[in-house]
Amino acid sequence: MSEPYEETIQGETTLRLPPGVRHELICTRLHEVIKASVANFPGTKLLELRSAIRVDANNLLRPDLAIATTTTGKIWLVAEVVSSEDHHADTVEKKQIYEEMKLPRLWMVDPRYNNVEIYLATEYGMRLEHILAGSDVLTEKLLPEFQMAIAELFAVNQS
């Protein structure tokens, strides 16, 4: 479904294996709903799946989803779909980098538990704002047209 890709974390380049089918299905669902939601916001751009983001000389990340402002190119929302094969990189290492770059919003989408952790930047670092699961609905106040049921995001079979 996808190709291997490289990321550089703390100066160490790692070849990431292609994500599994469920991981890609979740990414595709999220991208489709976000894409429709940003269509009416010319100041907001959804980057292609796993676009390279050069944070600094030691870090080049490829998040599953990234949204930037069109005028500055500054990333303001990232979603990482946690992979069971390399969950430490997603949940610890990359989260720390996002915190250091003062990313305003981070969604950690975890298929292992069918939940989404919502982090917001504060002056003291990233703060866990919500954990959404079950019948909860994922929304984003800066994208008023966006909403996605957590059950729909993680559904095994969907027509």
Structure, described:
It is a single chain. By secondary structure, the protein is α+β, with helices and mostly antiparallel strands. It has one domain: tt1808, chain A (Alpha-Beta Complex). It is about 25% helix and about 40% strand. It has helices at about 20-40, 85-100, 150-155, and strands spanning about 5-10, 10-15, 45, 55, 60, 65-70, 75-80, 105-110, 115-120, 125-135, 135-140, 145-150. The strands form four sheets. A six-stranded mixed β-sheet has the order 3-6-7-8-9-10. A two-stranded antiparallel ribbon has the order 1-2. The longest helix has 18 residues, at about 20-40. The protein is globular, with a radius of gyration of 15 Å.
Structure, briefly:
With 159 residues, this protein is of the alpha+beta class.
Low-pLDDT segments: none
Q: Would you identify the CATH H-level superfamily?
A: tt1808, chain A
For the termini, the CA-CA separation is 19 Å
CATH architecture assignment:
Alpha-Beta Complex
Structural topology:
Elements lengths: L4 E5 L2 E5 L4 H18 L5 E3 L6 E4 L2 E3 L3 E5 L5 E7 L5 H14 L4 E6 L4 E8 L2 E9 L3 E3 L7 E3 H5 L5
Parallel strand pairs: 7-8
Antiparallel strand pairs: 1-2, 3-6, 4-5, 6-7, 8-9, 9-10, 11-12
Keywords:
159 residues, alpha+beta, globular, six-stranded mixed β-sheet, single chain, two-stranded antiparallel ribbon, tt1808, chain A, 3 helices
